[in-house]
Amino acid sequence: MTFEQIKSVVAEAAKLYGVTQYEVYYSESEGMSTETLKDEISSFTSENASSVDFRCIINGRAGYASTQLLEEDEIADLVKKAAANAAVCESDDELEFFAGSESYGEVDMPEPVIPSAAALREAALALQKKTYSLSDKIADGTQSAVGAAISGSHMYNSHGLELSQRYGVNYGYVSVVVKEGEESVSAFKGANGSTFEELESACDKAVNKALSQIGAEPAPTGEYPIIIASETMRSLLSTFAPVFSAKNAEKGLSLLKGKEGEVIAADCVSIVDDPFRPGSVQSAFDGEGVATYTKNVVENGVLNTLLYNLSSAKKAGKTTTGNGNHSNGIRYHNFYIKPGSYTREELLKTADGGIFITEFKGLHAGANATTGDFSVESAGYMIENGALGKPVKSFTIAGNFFKLLKDIAALGNTVDFGLSTSPTVFASPDIYLPKMPVAGK
Amino acid sequence: MLSKALCSDIIAKAMSTGADFAEVYQELTRGNVIRLIGGKIDAIDDTVISGVGVRAFLGTRTVYATTTDLSREGLLRCASAVADTIAQSNAQVSINLTERIFPNIHGIKRLPGDAPVNERIGILKEACFAAKEYDERIAQVQGNLISIDHSILVANSEELYTTDRHVRTRLAVSAIASNGSENQSGFYGPGRAMGLEMFETVNPAQTGIRAARQAIVNLGAVPCPAGVMPVAIDNGFGGVIFHEACGHSLEATSVAIGASQMCGKMGQKIANEKVTAIDDGTIPNAWGSINIDDEGHSSQKNVLIENGVLKSYMVDRLGSRRMGVPSTGSGRRQGYMYEPTSRMTNTYIANGPDKNEDIIASIEYGLYAASMGGGSVNPVNGAFNFAVNEGYIIRNGKICEPVRGASLIGTGSQIIQDIDMVGQNLELGQGMCGSSSGSVPTNVGQPLIRVSKITVGGAGK
Hints:
- In chain A, 24% of the residues lie in helices and 37% in strands.
- Chain A is α+β, with helices and mostly antiparallel strands.
- Chain A has a six-stranded antiparallel beta sheet.
- In chain A, helix 1 packs across helix 2 and helix 3 (117-133) runs parallel beside helix 4 (196-212).
- Among the domains of chain B are: 4-31 and 44-99, no CATH class; 227-457, no CATH class.
- Chains A and B meet through strand 2, strand 3, helix 2, strand 6 and helix 9 of A and strand 2, strand 3, helix 2, helix 3 and strand 5 of B.
């Protein structure tokens, strides 16, 4: 079924069930990926999917239903189910659909292309070959993969607002296992691109990371100066990003509730939400059809604003910040801590005797966005004579995210945006914390 | 679901260029989630996931293609994409599928879809209101009632054509306790492979109270001291320790490609002799149970470790080809979007010889982990971490003050040797396990156990 056909089935059903305010969100995607093992292609996948998400509002309350079964009866049934769901909803969010912004920003992204299956296979095999050539310690289990996907979405609501967007993501990664004696170490590095030339640097980075971790032991228990590397801090920021949601604040799930205008971080910390960052997936409108814009969420330590959608803004007497999704939640764009002024070398000199963290594991379990507490398995290097020293692993770093924001004493001058595969990206420069508790041996 | 004739054509098409095995997998999942926050029903969402995955093997090379287009043309296009990638030789294949009906050992009494929405809302409210009323310091309660009706079809070039239906219900409550400046949380989320009859044995109000009680305990807890110490881990979700530390490393997913700490250890003593560990997908109506796996094999009870000796890996069809051992009925996937791989079902450490009170009494100074959170593992070297949701310091054989923010880290091969006491109160706990074939429902479980030494992380002194 085409989007036009879906719209007309929905319009008929809406009339039948007396639904006057509604939104149809149609998404379609296609993609291919290939993976190697030893010196051959071990798997190849291709996918193509479409789905319809339907939402209606009755007396200010929303009902939801979605399907991947794109048949006329199923789509008409969506309207019936969503209307029934809205009828028993008790939320006092007073939702309404959006009629449209006066103007929308321009996105600047290359036309998405999915390379041929042969080109993907060739690139994956070349990555694998290069990875094996870098060290005689590379072991079975090492895999290289390359893939590409295109996603498109169309939204239409009963105000007549109709918006579409389309983006492509090409990506590859190397997941390397190195073995020395009885010890096995693995490392992963991803990058955007689909040719060997675009992805080649991932081979060296993954292999070097794995080799340099051979012989790692737990760090001794104690308090240390800590640098969290850019690529690692990204995952911590992503875990705690829900604290910047106005919806979570409103529901009492974020300790940043009521803190707008107050100092919540060290002077050097600014956090930006940028829907138009060059090189990332860009979005001119959010999931509610509101025009997006770039904003400083935190500026020199002060919380300027939380991220609002239409309903949380209305409740707080504010204006949406263009951060809604299409299920009354919050969407982040390119959300990152701005770089500071120090090179990594300068930071290492400052943090001498400390630990440089390059990996957090199990953040989904070891960190709690509601309390801010985290206690997380880590790996990295001791900082000896102002430079990276012996590798360390299997120790935990514990703390609280809100305290960490205030304790940041310096920031690196580059931000690693890593592998991005969606319109939401989290990133950060290296951060320096003068004192953190470490549990190891 | 797709007809035998259409499945035959799809399989023949997928094998038309020389594949030596092909399979059609269809999924139709109807889900309903009721969400409650702040005492009010916040949203109800109905979802339908529907699609087909076509897979072919040539030796140990696999090709997989998926589509949501269920028209004959769409499905044959999907099979052609598979054949074009195999591109080995021209082959004329004729497939004669025979329907096979597996016994249903997880019968459902009341399908969630048949129960009025007000009854389901009532269950969720009973749980959440009980949590809110437990203590005035409970500041917020969120709850979900999740109902899943998941039908699958598996047809393959070994002439199998079969279907199965998994119905699951889960009630999850998370409570937040606040003293004004600080928040602490508690969670409890029981689930079963059942319909609404689950609530004949699981009390909704007790579910809410359990989440609230944990949040209040944590509000009064001090940060957990860090260090290496003995740890007593209680039953139920405490079994996540075995799931993460050892279970994932016994999956063919990593064993078959040489990327597991457990490679080459079959028949060897890898754990303390008190440890017997089992993966059993046949427990009637348990959260992780299945009649057949997602490759059409009957689910089995697999003894993984018996008295410390490694007896079995968990093997899927591709793992079976790579390792030259039979499938153990462990091929699972979230749905059609994923190629299946070897996964756990209900995995637990069996009851042992020790009395629970002796385990606590044996610890001079250590941690009692009453309730565990989630964790993760690197199967290559077995390095794991997991979070303690509710913990207490043990001093002189007595459980003392509560501590919060603790995490446990170590390596799987070490910890299973260090489990030196195994108690007798086996209970299962429900979780969702993530891996390369998506998120699948799994039970973890164990009785109270003692680990003689483990690294405990925490912010306390």
